[in-house]
Amino acid sequence: MAWAFLLLWVVSAAPTSISLGSSSTSPVYGAAATPTLALASSASVLNEHAPLTLTAILAGGASPAGTVSFMDGATLMDTISLSGQSASLTLNTLAVGSHSLSAVYNGDSNNNSTSSASVAVAVAGIHPAVVGVAPASGSALGNTRVSISGVRLAGATSVSYEWRCPSACSRPRPGWPTSATCKTRERPR
């Protein structure tokens, strides 16, 4: 008597059952699925210290679970647990300059890891930089007007300066700022 066996393998992303000629079934696990990962940024250009929200969204796969790592180039910024099929990171710590941001889904028992395409984000400096003061010298008496020029001065709310006595003295003279200090003393007459 010859026996013939037929073995059928079913490959799928989720467990399935096959019948082996009796009423019992055995689960068959297929290859892990590979979902796709998209990364969205709340801005492509922002000022330093401004908040930026990155959202990684998974599509497909077999009920993905686990974590998403957010990257700035090769540098790990943070790892966030999935909530449904997405994970979000809000930060305000990107340095001034250009950044290539991406997300990596770290996979689980049913899904392979996958990476998003990079998103370019530029961070602009907001600290003012003074490049010129006019007049550079002159009398501090009589309401002298001073003009300051530079970059990123819009929105500046105050200017601080160091005031120096216009001549050698031991104490401030009438009309001088009360905080005036002198470098040398007057010579006796």
Notable traits:
189 residues, 6-stranded mixed beta sheet, 3-stranded antiparallel beta sheet, Immunoglobulin-like, 2 domains, disordered N terminus, mainly beta, disordered C terminus, 13 strands
Task: Describe the 3D structure.
Strand 9 and strand 10 (114-115) form a beta hairpin. This protein folds into two domains: 36-124, Immunoglobulins (Immunoglobulin-like, Sandwich), CATH 2.60.40.10; 127-189, no CATH class. It has strands at residues 16-19, 25-28, 36-41, 45-47, 52-59, 67-72, 75-81, 86-91, 97-105, 114-115, 119-124, 129-134, 147-151. With 189 residues, the chain is mainly beta. Strands 4, 6, 7, 9, 10 and 11 form a six-stranded mixed β-sheet that branches. It has a three-stranded antiparallel β-sheet with strand order 3-5-8, with no helix packed on it. The radius of gyration is 34 Å and the shape is rod-shaped. The chain is 0% helix and 38% strand. The chain is built from no helices and 13 strands.
How many alpha or pi helices? 0
Distance between the termini: 136 Å
Q: Look at the structure and give the mean pLDDT.
A: 75
Largest β-sheet summary: 6 strands, mixed
Percent of residues in beta strands: 35-45%
CATH superfamily of the largest domain: Immunoglobulins
Please trace the helix and strand order, writing H or E for each element. EEEEEEEEEEEEE
How many domains? The number is 2
CATH architecture verdict of the largest domain: Sandwich
The CATH class of the largest domain: Mainly Beta
In which range does the helix fraction lie?
under 10%
The low-pLDDT segments are 3-28, 182-187
Here the CATH topology of the largest domain equals: Immunoglobulin-like
| Cα gyration radius (Å) | 34 Å
What is the strand tally?
A: 13
